[in-house]
Amino acid sequence: MVLLPLAAAFTLLVPRPAAAASLAQITGFGTNPTNLNMYVYAPDHLAPKPALLVLVHYCGGSAQGIFGGNGHDYATAADRYGYLIVLPEATRDGHCFDVSSPAALKRNGGSDSTGIMSMVDWTRRHYNVDPARIVVSGFSSGAMMTNVLAAEYPDVFSAASAFSGVPAGCFATTDGSTWNGQCSSGNVIKSAQQWGDLARSMYPGYTGGYPRMQLWHGTTDTTLAYPNYGEEIKQWTNLHSLNQTPAATDHPQSSWTRTRYGGTGQQSPVEGISIANTGHTLPQPGMLAYAITFLGLDGGGTTTPPSTGALHAVGSGKCLDVPNASTTAGVQLQTWDCQGGANQTWTHTASGQLTVTMSGTTLCLDAYNHQTTPGTKVVTWPCNGGANQQWALNSNGTVTGVQSGLCLDVTGASTANGAPVGLWTCNGGANQKWLLS
Fold it and tell me: Which UniProt keywords are given for this protein, alphabetically ordered (predicted)?
């Protein structure tokens, strides 16, 4: 049984600060045959009819580990958009989810997927969840479970996003083992029809539609080998009655190749993103911004986001920062590791200003010299009520200058400390997505 690679792949993750609200453990939530733990994150500003994200951790992981680590962008987005997060936690040795046993691969079969659906049902009973926006995402072991849940409960989930997984049913075993070496090594190859039929067998008699599916994989992944990515695409295109010819292909980042099937928009029925020269280390900075849009978590709800907090750059995971906490007018803003200091604490005022107060001095985020052209520096300046100091925090995560209509942009999509921040034509990139929390 080779469980260590999945767990080891994530041992270097560094937790980030938790969001304002905190995880709450729920007990007695319903049928739970494999003794999973359940945690819920309900942000302080919950939408009247919130979406629900089921977020499933990797082998060796935990609810708190994924919430504070490489899934943290989901948590900060929940603060902005007011959706709920349910985090199942495996308690067996190795902390992997069962996607192998016959019970695991059948709707209401009596394994982990049954307990997870009890968590969903509990949350729906206790919150006014939007039934059309119940979605699931997971990493590694959690990505495998994401595929299984979407196959077994297509009438519950509207969308799914799986990072470094395998097709639903690929990991099946009959000897009691939870590890399938043939599948993990990418040597289980089937036709699209065979994969689709395997998924359909998990919910016999179902004739409805299936969730839209987003699939991510690194081309040099040796833990859950890269051929599994192509097999996942076969399965989900078949479930959507599509062929495997992309409707669109592009490169959102230089190392990414994105293919869309059955549509060309941000919520196509099936979307795949392969990452060149990358192993079992997903997600990486900026990826969850695309997943949030694909899953529909950034729309459909109405909430009042926090008016004061750090302004997180989604693409890098860093914070908008006044260099050296300088109170000198005209200092260009940068991104830096989040540390909670006054020079990273911003207030979005009723008049649309973004202010920062350091050593008793309050300054405003300012488009330098009233310029309205791409490349304009963003600086601190004494507040004067000018249009170049008014900013819109938009539901898609962008921050736009009222005067220019340009987006607040991390120059060059840099993820390094000290990356300068300016204005640029809005292009939907992760380096133009921000979360105030």
Answer: Hydrolase, Signal
Q: How far apart are the first and last CA of the chain?
A: 42
pTM for this model (two decimals): 0.72
CATH 3.40.50.1820 assigned to 4-295: yes
Domain over 308-436 is classified CATH 2.80.10.50: yes
Is the backbone of residue 259 left (phi > 0), alpha (psi -120 to 50) or beta?
beta
pLDDT tens readout for residues 299-322:
754 444 457 889 999 999 899 999
Q: 106 with 202: CB under 8 angstroms?
A: yes
Distances (CA, A) of 243 to 75, 231, 233, 247, 268: 35, 13, 10, 10, 14
pLDDT of residue 402: 81
Per the rule left: phi > 0, alpha: psi between -120 and 50, beta: everything else, 403 is alpha
Asked if 140 is an active-site residue, the reply is: yes
Domain limits, the chain: 4-295, 308-436
3-state secondary structure of 270: strand
pLDDT in tens, 53-111: 999 999 999 999 999 999 999 998 998 899 999 999 999 999 999 999 999 999 999 99
Options 62, 101, 137, 140, the catalytic residue: 140
Cα 389 from Cα 168, distance rounded (Å): 51
Q: For residues 5 and 390, give the distance between their C-alpha atoms in angstroms, rounded to a whole number.
A: 49
